[in-house]
Design brief:
Layout (H helix, E strand, L loop, with lengths): L11 H10 L1 H20 L1 H17 L3 H25 L1 H8 L3 H9 E6 L4 H17 L5 E5 L5 H9 L3 E4 L4 E2 L2 E2 L13 E5 L3 E3 L6 H4 L5 E4 L15 E4 L3 H15 L6 H10 L4 E4 L15 E3 L18 H5 L8 H18 L3 H6 L2 H9 L5 H6 L1
Parallel strand pairs: 1-2, 1-6, 2-3, 8-10
Antiparallel strand pairs: 4-5, 6-9, 7-11
């Protein structure tokens, strides 16, 4: 078969021959060599240093990922050492803070608040959240709000997990639950920081109470700083309970519900940002989907590439969890640590029987991976 040769496939050869015969090319090469020789004579290190620098830049210009990983590794190590310090010396820190009258009043009359819908997943998340708050925070009051028809078993579990249980009035709009708006009516507390049950603090969050002001809301951005974002997260917000603000909230809620039902975060955003009453907190307080630096807490409700943390198949056993003590460099490390904290919370609240024999989270996981009998290795 005759091969079809295009014009473009052979047109380069005459061009190369013409360049080689060109006296301008040889003049340029000669001038370049003479210039390099002159530079070497004036400074023998100039040419070699330039070549070395060019080679170094060429090798490392595409090495941005490894440089970023090194920085993240260092940041994770710093965060982990801070976590260990805050956990180990919690009592000493809290005693020192109590010497100040302002801090003493803040810690004694303030409270953490979460909302537990009553299903097993929210109970498991509340156990993890409660244990981390008990480990890191100087604010000892932990409130768990529950719906009106919550069964007594859930209330008993939350008590064992260290919560004071509150039954709050139902507020809903077209199926969207707004019961947490009742937080502004809890005037027995001077400050409240609400955390949804999916919040997984990795460091102390006590400083959020210092940002809370009357008639304002403190909340983190919904997205990191490299994303254009004007909204805040409904997973965490700080507030000062107040009768007037609560009355205004209810009035606005009822008025807006006649036209459109927003979720809690959307409604609160419209209510507080119209008059610039939002104290902005960094995204680090509400990290989602992947590991982020710096990080104060992670929201496990957002499904990441690893799936829900309570269904993660990389789950360590109790025996393995005892040996886990390392920085949270990757999302996998964060998930692993979540399970370590869950085991500690179950142990502290004496909740192992419920976990092994009544929790749907445990049995769903066990049946999804029948090769590993987690009940056996967890108990012993």
């Amino acid at each position: 078969m005759k091969r079809n040769i295009t014009h473009n496939s052979i047109s380069y050869f005459p061009l190369v021959l013409r360049l080689l015969k060109s006296r301008y090319l040889w003049f340029l090469l000669t001038a370049t060599l003479l210039t390099l020789l002159l530079l070497h004579t004036l400074n023998p290190y100039l040419v070699s240093d330039s070549v070395t620098q060019l080679s170094h830049v060429t090798r490392h210009v595409f090495d941005v990922r490894s440089r970023g990983e090194s920085e993240h590794k260092l940041a994770a190590q710093i965060e982990w050492e801070l976590f260990e310090f805050q956990a180990l010396y919690r009592d000493a820190r809290c005693f020192s803070n109590s010497d100040s009258n302002s801090n003493s009043e803040t810690f004694s009359k303030s409270a953490w608040l979460t909302y537990v819908q009553g299903d097993d997943v929210s109970v498991v998340q509340a156990i993890v959240l409660g244990h981390m708050l008990r480990t890191l925070s100087c604010v000892t009051v932990r409130l768990a709000a529950v719906p009106d028809k919550t069964n007594g078993k859930v209330t008993e579990l939350l008590h064992k997990a260290g919560y004071k249980v509150l039954v709050l009035s139902d507020l809903s709009c077209d199926g969207l639950d707004h019961v947490i708006l009742n937080a502004w009516n809890l005037t027995q507390n001077n400050k409240i920081v609400y955390l949804n049950t999916a919040t997984f603090p990795t460091l102390s969050l006590d400083e959020v109470f210092d940002t809370v002001q009357l008639d304002m809301i403190s909340a983190p951005y919904q997205s990191p700083s490299n994303v254009a974002d004007i909204s805040f997260s409904g997973a965490m917000f700080g507030l000062v309970p107040d009768d007037r603000t609560f009355t205004e909230l209810l009035a606005q809620f009822q008025e807006r519900s006649r036209y459109k039902c927003h979720n809690v975060a959307g409604f609160l955003w419209y209510f507080f940002t119209r008059d610039e009453r939002w104290t902005k907190l960094p995204y680090s307080y509400n990290v989602r989907n992947d590991r982020y630096f710096p990080m104060k807490s992670y929201n496990t409700m957002e499904v990441s590439r690893l799936g829900p943390v309570w269904e993660w198949h990389g789950k360590p056993t109790r025996q393995q969890a005892v040996k886990i003590d390392k920085p949270l460099e990757r999302l996998e490390d964060l998930y692993e640590f979540w399970w370590v904290v869950l085991y500690e919370g179950l142990e502290r609240g004496d909740l192992w029987h419920w976990w092994h024999y009544e929790s749907s989270v445990y049995w769903k996981f066990l049946h999804s991976d029948p090769v590993r009998d987690f009940r056996a290795v967890d108990i012993y």
